[in-house]
User: Which sequence fits this backbone?
């Protein structure tokens, strides 16, 4: 019987770590949930952990991991620490944040000048984002609307091979971080 590439990859993962990706996913989700992470953030930490495991598998001169489950939790702790580190860098919301962001919520394209678009683009480029969030932000950033709508979210989901709901929640998290960073920059 001929195996597809996906089936072969799963078999290789199991051989290397001694557990299935589904088992690791469930255990990592439970772990990050016990640390207070829910929704898109929990999913991001889980996916980053699995991605790290897959990347490690692909490195040359690799040797199988003795306890794949313990290794996955070790990596999840690192990804969780990274997540909280990124979250702690976000400034506290300010009462002027809504006023700042309403500038980008109108239909008059001339309302956003080149300087504002350039400043907002600089703020987006300086955001401390996970690799997946950076990909989504780069694909969707539209400086003339001060929003993340350059292409349909369904296109991004297809290109990055992630669920449309994951793209939507990722965009929501990016917008929150962007609004806070832009508000801080404009207050200077």
Assistant:
């Amino acid at each position: 019987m001929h195996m597809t590439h996906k089936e072969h990859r799963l078999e290789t993962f199991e051989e290397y770590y001694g557990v299935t990706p589904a088992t690791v996913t469930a255990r990592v989700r439970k772990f990050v949930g016990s640390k207070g992470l829910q929704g898109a953030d929990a999913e991001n930490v889980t996916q980053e952990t699995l991605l790290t495991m897959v990347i490690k598998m692909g490195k040359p001169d690799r040797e199988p991991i003795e306890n794949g489950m313990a290794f996955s939790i070790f990596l999840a702790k690192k990804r969780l620490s990274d997540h909280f580190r990124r979250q702690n860098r976000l400034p506290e919301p300010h009462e002027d944040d809504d006023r700042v962001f309403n500038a980008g919520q109108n239909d008059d394209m001339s309302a956003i000048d080149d300087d504002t678009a350039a400043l907002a683009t600089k703020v987006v480029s300086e955001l401390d984002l996970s690799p997946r969030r950076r990909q989504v932000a780069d694909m969707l950033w539209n400086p003339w609307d001060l929003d993340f709508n350059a292409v349909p979210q369904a296109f991004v989901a297809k290109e990055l091979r992630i669920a449309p709901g994951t793209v939507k929640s990722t965009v929501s998290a990016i917008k929150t971080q962007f609004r806070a960073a832009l508000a801080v920059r404009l207050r200077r």
